[in-house]
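Let us walk through a complete example step by step. Step one is to write down the protein sequence. Step two is to encode the small molecule, pyridoxal-5'-phosphate, as a SMILES string so that its atoms and bonds are unambiguous. Step three, shown after the inputs, is the structure prediction itself.
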Amino acid sequence: MIVYLNGQYLPENEALISPNDRGFVFGDGVYEVTRVVRGKSFRMDDHMERLRGSLRGLHLHLPPETLAAIPALHEELVARNNLQDSDTTVYLQITRGAAPVRTHFFPSSEVAPTIFMSASLFVPARESLRRGVNAISVPDVRWQRCNLKTVNLLPNVLARQQAREAGADTALMHRDGVYTETPNANIFAVIDGVIRTYPLSNYILQGVTRNALMEFIAARGLPVREFAIGMDELFAASEVFVASTMSEVQAITEVDGKPIGDGRPGPVTRMLLADLHAAMGLA
Ligand SMILES: Cc1ncc(COP(=O)(O)O)c(C=O)c1O
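Step three: the predicted structure of the complex.
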């Protein structure tokens, strides 16, 4: 596998990152995961806008020309891995770089950010998409800047592991009596015929898939409300689904051991998954 590191394309085992890198020492960095289908990035403008927001949130400054080059690097990396005819994901991570001394405060401006990218084949979870998956509810113990896509993912890691140990696929995280998101996706529910999802705020990440779904929902004229799903409302939902680059539009058919709706992926979930595939040119 060929990866990109600080201006160079290298075999993965030759891409060396310093142990002083602040991504390693502090989790001082941001990331993006972008779908590149047959060599073409999906909603790259959305990813770049979110990336700029994450970098701003961390006061991590990148020269404008470096940022401007990132979309083209995605497609170049995919091509260098001979994946230009495949369905792929590109992982991008930018950290505050390798500072010689470990201090919490930022290093001098001479320390250059580290920019790393890798490309992988996307393997669709066909069986899960067809059948739905189960989830457990767990408290959302993340910080109050969940809108920034930082590499500090410990609460997400622990929640997903807790789900796994409970025999579930994922975790619906809740804060103040309402569901926020899963460790790696936005949550939607259909309640009384209205599609509901947590409103954009500092308590959730603005998913690129969420953006796409909101457009499909508007185009279809379906009733929608950006209003959090209460924990006491979940089992009144006819459908619950989650949306992300990796999980696409995934039905959640059971939560905490109880079925949602009839326990199968519902019509809104299936329609939005089809819309997503069509928008990616996969229909
Ligand atoms: C916490 C969280 N919410 C939502 C998402 C969905 O974002 P996207 O649709 O851009 O993949 C992700 C993706 O990784 C995530 O980590």
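Step four is interpretation. Residues 33, 181, 184-186, 205, 207-210, 243-245 surround pyridoxal-5'-phosphate (CB under 6 Å).
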